[in-house]
Amino acid sequence: MDVKNKIKIVAIDLDGTLLNSNHEVSPKNADVLRKLEKNGIKVVITTGRAYEAMIRFYKEIGLNGEAICYNGAVVYDKDHNPVWKNTLDHETGLELVKVGEEFNTYHHGFIDNKWVLPEMTDIAREYKNRTGLNETLVDFHQLENIAFTKMMYIGENEILMDIYNVLDDKFGDQLYKAFSNPMFLEIMHRDSSKAKALSFLLEENNLTSDNLLAIGDGYNDFEMLSMAGIGVIMENAPEELKKHFMHKALSNDEDGVGRFLESFFEI
């Protein structure tokens, strides 16, 4: 069977991949994704973003399939219901907050689809502008249950690497830790990742990884691209990542997603 005929699901990261530097979906990319769905191929947005920060792009394009959010912690079906979800327990959440405080590093989380943070700072305002989310201010130490779907630290990479190492010492493999970009360290339940969420979707659809094409640009996309039958790395990805993958797309500012898929599927 021709390789392209094996592909039944196309999983696409958002930031740095489907979205350009202005955080927009280009007309070219949107048009190609609509053509794929029309041809019976599932298009699955696979992002570290919260559901509320993802759904506007899903609707703008006019997609009709599943979506993966919070770096694989939650899978939503085509009716926007969560069908697979992993959350951190209260004790772990509280420890993560304390680590952020000890390092005097900006941190926030997501609980029940709410963006929760202790105060609005310049970093928080920039994040709000980037995602379009509405904040909920809380005192983490007063919450009865800090069941984070995702917890996030934002800061200089050197400090975040120190936090990463501290979390390694404290929790070992009990957490899934991912850099969506060098300044964003995201923490989820250990059973969360884009690759694991996609494995769930493949199994639900009686498919295997050979039926998956995935496109991404970040370190949090590495497992997803590695497990896919066809893993595609963006030109704007770090050089360290690009050397691992044979298939490459133009940058996110050159309609890389749309142009690769148009050529691959000959549409």
TrEMBL record:
One of its GO terms (cellular component) is cytosol. SUPFAM superfamilies: HAD-like (SSF56784). Keywords: Hydrolase. The keyword Hydrolase applies. NCBIfam families: Cof-subfamily, HAD-SF-IIB. This is Cof-like hydrolase. GO terms for molecular function: magnesium ion binding; phosphatase activity. PANTHER family: HAD SUPERFAMILY HYDROLASE-LIKE, TYPE 3 (PTHR10000:SF8), PHOSPHOSERINE PHOSPHATASE (PTHR10000). The lineage of its organism: Bacteria, Fusobacteriati, Fusobacteriota, Fusobacteriia, Fusobacteriales. The keyword Hydrolase applies.
